């Protein structure tokens, strides 16, 4: 591994999650404000964030939210980063001045790496590298594309397809990253950030030991 890849633990919903990250100190933590099993209200997120140690950056995850609502949530929660997982376009991103913006792009899961799709894949979210060029001033988040989902599926794509991305863009890698494979993910893609949610959960909740192992393996 070359430059140290930063770590984001996404989908925090409980006060104990804050205790975990305050002890383990990932670089970023994420709060999901879109439809999801990890969705959290603005008010509840703000309460959790109040107990977060300084130095951990706060990321808000949104899907096709109105800009006024998004900016109000960002203000109340004192977010540092806005992560967009819907059909938000370049103009939308430019209206979020004052915040670091990460725009998500989907790639087919490993079972569709040959270009085939079926009921679990959705061609409309497959990555278009020409589109990405427009977002060079923003973070480019690469995630696994699954039909009916905007991320957080725990499925991975073929990381070799993202080789070289980090030399051209600020690259965030998501999708199916676990404590066991995070080192491979970093060595293959060399992302600036790895974004992990379900990979550090047990029974749908954040697991202290899994987060600890992931951070140790990523930074080791």
From TrEMBL:
EC number: 5.3.1.24
Keyword Signal in record: no
Domain N-(5'phosphoribosyl) anthranilate isomerase (PRAI): 7-215
Classification via InterPro entries: Aldolase_TIM (IPR013785), PRAI_dom (IPR001240), RibuloseP-bd_barrel (IPR011060), TrpF_fam (IPR044643)
Enzyme class, spelled out: isomerase
Pfam families tied to this protein: PRAI
Molecular-function GO terms, alphabetical: phosphoribosylanthranilate isomerase activity
Source organism, top-level taxon: Bacteria
Family as reported in the entry's similarity comment: Belongs to the TrpF family.
Protein name per UniProt: N-(5'-phosphoribosyl)anthranilate isomerase
Gene: trpF
């Amino acid at each position: 591994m070359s430059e140290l890849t930063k770590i984001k633990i996404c989908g925090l919903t409980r006060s104990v999650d804050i205790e975990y990250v305050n002890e383990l100190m990932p670089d970023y933590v994420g709060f999901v404000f879109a439809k999801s099993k990890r969705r959290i209200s603005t008010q509840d997120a703000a309460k959790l964030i109040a107990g977060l140690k300084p130095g951990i950056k706060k990321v808000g995850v949104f899907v096709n939210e109105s800009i006024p609502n998004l900016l109000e949530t960002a203000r109340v929660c004192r977010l540092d980063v806005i992560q967009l997982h819907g059909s938000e376009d370049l103009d939308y991103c430019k209206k979020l001045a004052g915040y670091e913006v990460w725009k998500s792009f989907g790639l087919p899961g490993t079972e569709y790496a040959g270009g085939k799709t079926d009921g679990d894949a959705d061609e409309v979210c497959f990555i278009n590298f020409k589109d990405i060029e427009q977002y060079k001033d923003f973070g480019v988040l690469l995630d696994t594309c699954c039909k009916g989902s905007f991320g957080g599926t725990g499925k991975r794509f073929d990381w070799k397809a993202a080789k070289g991305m980090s030399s051209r863009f600020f690259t965030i890698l998501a999708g199916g990253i676990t404590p066991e494979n995070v080192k491979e993910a970093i060595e293959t893609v060399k992302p600036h950030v790895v974004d992990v949610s379900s990979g550090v959960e047990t029974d749908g909740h954040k697991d202290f030991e899994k987060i600890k192992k992931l951070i140790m393996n990523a930074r080791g």
